[in-house]
Model the fold of this input.
Amino acid sequence: MTNLTKKELENDKELLESIIFSLDLDKKEIELKELEKQSLDPNFWSDNQNAQNVMKNIEGIKKEINTSDQLENDITSLIELYEITENSEDLIEEYEDIHNKIKDFEKLKFLSGKYDNKDVYLSIYAGQGGTESNDWASMLLRMYQMYADKKDWKYTVEEVESGSETGISNATMKISGEYVYGMLKKEHGTHRLVRISPFNAQGLRQTTFAGIEVIPIIEKIDTDIEIPEKDIQFKAVKAGGPGGQKVNKTSSAVQITHIPTGITVHSATERSQLQNRENAMNILKSKLARILEEERIEEIDKIKGDYKQASWGNQIRNYILHPYKLVKDLRTDIESYDPESILDGNLDEFVEAQLRIQ
Done:
C-alpha cells in the first residue's frame, strides 16, 4: 500500500461496528455480571469443573469487550489523525496493524454456535491403505499437535493405538482453549494423501485416507442423552503407542461400544479403570449430543468410531506430495503449494476460510 484513503478507514470502522453488533456485547455485559456474581459464591469451587467453565466464560467475555473498546479507540484516533496529517503515508503502518486486528476480531462473528467455545475431542482414524494409512494418520496427529501449539491451545493424547507395522490406527486428542470447537469443527471428514510411498519397494505413487472426527466436550449433557447399560459393551484394554505425550499403558484403559450406533470410544489417561470408564462415557455422550445438535441422525454412520467411509469420493481435503506439491480444500478451493508447511501445522488459512462460508 502506497497511499491511505479515508474510504479505507471508514470501511474498517463500519466493519468493526458490524462485528460489535453481531456479538451483542450489551447482552454479554449482563451475562458477565451474572457470571461474576456466581464466582463470588462461597461454594463456587465445590464443583471444580463447572467453576473452571465459568471462569473461562468470564475471561472470554472480558476479552471480547476489552478488544472491541480498544479497536474502537484505535480506529477513531486514526481517523482523527488522518484528518489533520499532511502525509497519509506516515499512517500506513499503523493502519495495517489496526486493519489486521479488526479482521482477526471478525472471526468471532462466525463463532457464535452453541458449542463453538467448547473444548474438543479430536480423533484420527486410519482409512483405506493399510500401512500407508497408519503412517498418514500419525502425520495428521502431528499436524494437529503442531497447530494446537501455534494457537497456544493445551492438549493431551487421550488414547492412541499403534498400527500393525508403523504409525497409528487411531488416536484421540483432548484440546482446550478459546473457540476450539468453532475453529476445528470443519476439519471433521476424510483427508486424502497422495505421495510416493516410503513403504512401497517399487517407488509407486499411492493414495491413502484418514478420517478426522471433531466433537465438543459438553460438561452437562442434555437430559435426553441417557444411555441404558444394555446399550453398552465394555472391556478393559491395554493402551500404548506414539502420541507425543504420556499415555497410560496399563490395563486400566477402557473401550466402550455403543451397540445401537456402533460408536466406539477409548480412554487411557487415568490410572483408575473407573475414572477411564467415566471419561469414555462422557466422550460417548458428547458424540451423541453432536449428532442431536446437528439434527443429522440419518447420518450417524458418518460419525462412527471406525470411520470406514475414509476412502475415495468423500474427502474434504487433498494433500498431494507427488507428482506436484499441493494442498487443496475441496469445499473452499483454498490452495497451498507448500504442503510441508501445512503438515507442520500452519492451517489458519484453511480453517478461517471454512469459517466464513458456514
About this structure: The chain is about 40% helix and 20% strand. The radius of gyration is 23 Å. The first strand starts at residue 120 and ends at 126. The chain has two domains: 6-110, 120-355.
